[in-house]
């Protein structure tokens, strides 16, 4: 009977240890599931962040491309304006030179006419 009591006590201790181990196993499994759920949430947030960053990057690249196109158009406009300005300057110089020639010819004609009388001028027209 004493051996049976000791065996019963031994069985109770093992049974308690087994219950404690099962309880701890369930706690660890629950903790594992919580951690797994947290990991999935973090992954989902990371994917969302990556998608947001990718979209922002694409938008930034598009804005950069637009900005570059505007810069190129502005440079082309400046170059065209510079060429136009040069053409106007050349034209203006040509006009100034032509006007100068006309003024010189008019001065030469005035000097020639200064010595002539009105009668001579009238005879020049008849001739």
Overview of this protein structure:
By secondary structure, the chain is mainly α. The mean pLDDT is 86. It has helices at 2-114, 118-126. The chain has two helices and no strands. Helices cover 96% and strands 0% of the residues. The protein starts with a helix and ends with a helix.
Short characterization:
96% of the residues lie in helices and 0% in strands. The protein is mainly alpha-helical. The mean pLDDT is 86.
Strand-helix topology:
Elements: H1 2-114, H2 118-126
Based on DSSP secondary structure assignment, what is the total number of beta strands? Answer: 0
Looking at the structure, what is the overall shape? rod-shaped
Kindly state the percentage of residues in helix: over 70%
What is the radius of gyration? Answer: 53 Å
Key phrases:
127 residues, single chain, 0% strand, mainly alpha
């Amino acid at each position: 009977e004493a051996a049976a009591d000791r065996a019963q006590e031994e069985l109770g201790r093992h049974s308690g240890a087994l219950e404690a181990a099962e309880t701890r196993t369930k706690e660890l499994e629950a903790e594992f599931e919580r951690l797994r759920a947290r990991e999935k949430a973090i992954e989902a947030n990371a994917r969302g962040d990556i998608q947001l960053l990718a979209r922002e990057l694409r938008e930034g690249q598009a804005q950069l491309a637009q900005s570059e196109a505007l810069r190129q158009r502005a440079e082309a406009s400046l170059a065209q304006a510079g060429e136009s300005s040069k053409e106007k300057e050349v034209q203006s110089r040509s006009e100034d030179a032509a006007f100068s020639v006309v003024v010189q010819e008019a001065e030469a004609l005035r000097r020639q006419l200064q010595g002539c009388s009105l009668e001579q001028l009238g005879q020049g027209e008849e001739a």
